[in-house]
Amino acid sequence: MTSSAASRAVMPPGTESFLDSRSLAADHANLAALLRPGMTVLDAGCGTGAITRGIAQAVSPGGTAVGIDINAGLIARAAAASAGQPNLRFEEADVNAERWEAAFDLVTSARVLQWLAVPARAVAAMVRAARPGGTIAVLDYDYTRAEWDPALPPAVRRFFEAFLDWRAEAGMDNAIAAHLPRLFEQAGLTGVSGVDQREVATAGNADYQRRIALWPGVIRPPPEGTRPPGPPTSGGPRCLLPQDA
Ligand SMILES: C[S@@+](CC[C@H](N)C(=O)[O-])C[C@H]1O[C@@H](n2cnc3c(N)ncnc32)[C@H](O)[C@@H]1O
Description:
Strand order of the largest sheet: 3-2-1-4-5
Number of domains: 1
Shape: globular
CATH class: Alpha Beta
Helix content: 25-40%
Number of strands: 5
Structural class: alpha/beta
Largest sheet: 5 strands, parallel
Order of helices and strands: HHHHEHEHEEHEHHHH
CATH superfamily: Vaccinia Virus protein VP39
Bound molecules: S-adenosylmethionine
Mean pLDDT: 88
Radius of gyration: 18 Å
Strand content: 5-15%
CATH topology: Rossmann fold
CATH architecture: 3-Layer(aba) Sandwich
Number of helices: 11
């Protein structure tokens, strides 16, 4: 990963509670269908561990879940929220580090490869961590296919385009979801298949606020001195996203 990508991949302050609100069922549903009691699972780039906790429950009894993340603060939060769940542990680690060999039945990552300038390195480490015959299950985005109805207000549209430029400039792939099959095949995986998992936020639906809650944290300029080169900001301290459009 280039240092530029690494610094831009840091979750903005205040977004921890957004990560906490995620769940296996709502936010990694295709993975949920693959999990069985007794499985060993690595969740690479687990954030605050909300999805990992669901994984640990799904593989009980007899299974274990390990969550890793490069962000020490997020790992501490994950561990604190999971104390007392014996088949679940968290470690601060880089997804690129080849830390395990043939140790897991299933290795997953959700919304992580999109932040890496060299995702193939992380995929190689994930493949190495899986046992022969094991499964790699990755969830990620194709920002180039995002759709809005009604159309975004012009200022938010400009922000979103600048956000994608800022990511691309650091070497991140804005259409990584479309490129995952090729990445997997290049890593030597067989039986590769893609499944659609759309994230839809519809005003009026029960989870609408939860689904859009990340963006104010991304758009809002961070307080001076709290963050390395941040994303392009709207130029003002206010969130420009329509909260109830
Ligand atoms: C968008 S969050 C996704 C968190 C969680 N998987 C989820 O879906 O809610 C991306 C996570 O990837 C982590 N991350 C970024 N680069 C990483 C790396 N090189 N190794 C491990 N984790 C990384 C970030 O710290 C962050 O927690």
